[in-house]
Specification:
The chain has about 270 residues and is α/β, with parallel strands linked by helices. The protein is built from 9 helices and 9 strands. About 40% of the residues lie in helices and about 20% in strands. Helix 5 packs across helix 6. The longest helix is centred in the last third of the chain and has 17 residues. Bound molecules: adenosine-5'-triphosphate and 4-amino-5-hydroxymethyl-2-methylpyrimidine. The site of adenosine-5'-triphosphate has 23 residues, from helix 7 and helix 8. InterPro entries: HMP/HMP-P_kinase_dom (IPR004399), PM/HMP-P_kinase-1 (IPR013749), Ribokinase-like (IPR029056).
Length: about 270
Amino acid sequence: MRKVLTIAGSDSSGGAGIQADIKTMIMNGVYAMSAVTALTAQNTTGVTGIMEVTPEFLAQEIDAVFTDIRPDAVKIGMVSSSGLIRTIAEKLRFYEAENIVVDPVMVATSGARLISDEAIDTLKKELLPIATVLTPNIPEAEVLADMKITTKEDMVTAAQKISEAYGCAVLCKGGHNLNDANDLLYYDGCSEWFNGKRIDNPNTHGTGCTLSSAIASNLAKGYDMKEAVRRAKAYISDALAAMLNLGKGSGPMNHAFDLCGRFKESCV
Ligand SMILES: Nc1ncnc2c1ncn2[C@@H]1O[C@H](COP(=O)(O)OP(=O)(O)OP(=O)(O)O)[C@@H](O)[C@H]1O
Ligand SMILES: Cc1ncc(CO)c(N)n1
C-alpha cells in the first residue's frame, strides 16, 4: 500500500485541514499519516482559536514518521509561522522526501488569516523551492506572483511566473471564479486547463485541502502529474456534488459519497 503524510493544521469541525486530508487519502486508497502543525478551534462559520505546536515537536513528529513508515508523498497545508516552515523544509530535505505537494494556505474559506506576513517570506525562501507542485487559489497566486489576476490569461501568466521562480509545477485553482471551476496546471513549461463544471453548492469548506491531498495520493500511487490532477479534480467534483449540508456557514464536503451508495440506510 502507498503511504502519504499530511503536515497541516487540525480543524475541529472536520471539514478542512488534517481531517479533510485523512478522509481524502483513505477514499483515494492510500495509507494516511499526519504531523500536526497547529490545533484550530474552528467550525463552518469561522476560526476562534489557533494553538501551534513548537518547531521541536513538529520535528519529532516528522522524524517518527520518516524513520518508520516512509511516505511516498507529502502534502503540506496550514503552517502559520517561520519556525515551523523552516523545520519542515529542513526535515524534508534531510529525508529526501518525494512528491511534495504544497497548498500555500493563507486564508480560511470563512475569511480567517492562517499565516503571518513574515511566514509568507519564509514559505517563499524555504519551502516552495523544494515543492513538486504548488496549489494556490487565485488570491494566493496573486501574493506569490505579485500581480493581480482578473482573466484566464492572468492565471497562466501567474502560474508560469511562480513555476519559474520555484522550479515546480503550479496548479492555479479557479474555485474563486463565480462562473466556472477551471484550474490551470503549469508544468514542464506548458499550461493545461482542467475544466470543471461549477457545482451550485455553497458548502466548500476544505476544498483546497481535499484537492491537494487527492493530488498527493495519486502521485504516491505512481500517476504522473497530469493524471494525478485529473483524478483529484474528479474526486473533488464528486465530493461537492454529493451536496452535504452541515453547519451554519460554508459546510464541509461528503467524502463518503461512494460509501453512501453502499450503506444507503445508515448514511441518511
Ligand atoms: N462550486 C464549485 N464547483 C466545482 N468545483 C469547485 C467549486 N468550488 C471550488 N471548486 C474546485 O475545488 C478545488 C479547490 O479550489 P478553491 O479555489 O476553492 O481552493 P481553496 O480556496 O484553496 O479552498 P479552501 O477554501 O479550502 O481554502 C478546485 O479544483 C476548484 O476548481
Ligand atoms: C486547519 C485548516 N487548514 C486549512 C484550512 C483552509 O481551508 C482551514 N480552514 N483550516
